[in-house]
Amino acid sequence: MTDASIPKTMKTWTIHTEGDRMEVAMAEAPIPEPGPNQVLVKVHAASLNRGEFIAGHGLHKPGSPPKPVGMEVSGEVVQHGPGVPGYKVGDKVMGRCAGAFSGYAVMSGREVIRMPPHLSWEEAAAAPLAFMTAHDMVIGQGKLKKDEWMLVTGISAGVGVAALQLAKAIGAKVIGTSGSAEKLMKLKALGLDVGIHTRAADFCDAVMKATDGHGADLALNNVGGTVFAECIKALAFEGRMAIVGYVDNVLEAKIDIQALHMKRLQLFGVSNKLRTAEQKATSVTAFIADVLPHLEDGSIRPFVDKIFEFGDLPAAKAYMEGNRHMGKIVLRGPA
To answer: pLDDT digit string (tens) for 157-213?
Structure first.
């Protein structure tokens, strides 16, 4: 695509706060221009991420004007600014960016990842954020090893499924909780070792039984404060716990200091909200080193639950908020 064939305007989705809800609206916007070390991508697909649509996560301040929505994309490079080595017009790429639910999006050269050729646009759009977050939890901070046990609460969410796939790729064993027995059965096909059908904080005994009393070496709390104490109970000696989400909107929990002390536990958070661009770029390097080879050889395939057309973002948002999905929900780019 030449510069002359790039249109002047595009359709884009914006988001704003109304009370305790986030609302989306379609708008017309000028095509952005790539600056130094940036590429302009024609969007073929972009995936939803729950945190962006939760008012309590603080990504959008009440009363602030609508802003473009969408965090990760797959598409084709149509233009680039100076200082972007290794990419040319026509290259298929994926990665994080702002305003992904648009006809075109600008990506930082530090965020661009070459798309494995056998992935569909939708699969590629579902990979970057979920697997970068999973890498941070499972490998980066979680330091999960072969044959260790990992517990994931709310495992059917996009980052939970990605964490399951990554853990199985390194030879670990995985326990997952979910309020849907059907979803747990489907996750067996992706390697889930033990599924616990519950939404309550009542899974410690089942974890201990599954691990012969050892407990989980790593717990990924994808739910929030309601299961925090139970995760602590379920951890093994020198266990680690990642706090990655709070879909229950419970932001406080009691800490068993004696368990923390005696079991030599480690607790850590997983968020990009306060990280600098340079710090965020390190997760791209880790993704390319540790995750991309699995995507390229097919040993990991991003799990896409449902694909919506570009004009159907409100329906996709409602589908996500209804907790009906497993893995990722993807929006196709505009025709």
So the answer is: 999 999 999 999 999 999 999 999 999 999 999 999 999 999 999 999 999 999 999
pLDDT in tens, 233-272: 999 999 999 999 888 989 999 999 999 999 999 999 999 8
DSSP string computed for 252-305: -----HHHHHHTT-EEEE---TT--HHHHHHHHHHHHHHTHHHHHHTS----EE
The pLDDT, as a whole number, for residue 329 is: 97
Global model pTM greater than 0.90: yes
Tell me: domain 132-269, CATH 3.40.50.620, correct? no
What is the DSSP-derived secondary structure letter of residue 101? S
Whether the CB-CB separation of 310 and 316 falls below 8 Å is answered with no
Count the neighbouring beta carbons within 10 Å of the beta carbon of residue 250: 13
DSSP for 163-188 reads HHHHHHHTT-EEEEEES-HHHHHHHH
- In Å, how far are 4, 36, 78, 275 from 109, measured between CA atoms? 23, 9, 14, 17
Cα–chain center distance at 219: 17
The alpha carbon of residue 232 and the mean position of all alpha carbons in its chain are separated, in whole angstroms, by: 24
* Residue 310 pLDDT > 60: yes
What are the boundaries of each domain within the chain?
3-127+302-332, 132-269
Q: Do domains 3-127+302-332 and 132-269 have the same CATH topology?
A: yes
- The domain covering 3-127+302-332 belongs, at the CATH homologous superfamily level, to Medium-chain alcohol dehydrogenases, catalytic domain (3.90.180.10)
Residue with tokens 């609508």: 66
The answer to whether residues 7 and 25 touch, using CB atoms and an 8 Å cutoff, is no
Q: Residue 272 class from Cβ within 10 Å (0-12 exposed, 13-18 middle, 19+ buried)? A: middle
Residue by residue, DSSP assigns 189-249 as TTT-SEEEE-SSS--HHHHHHHTTT--EEEEEE-S-GGGHHHHHHHEEEEEEEEE---TT-
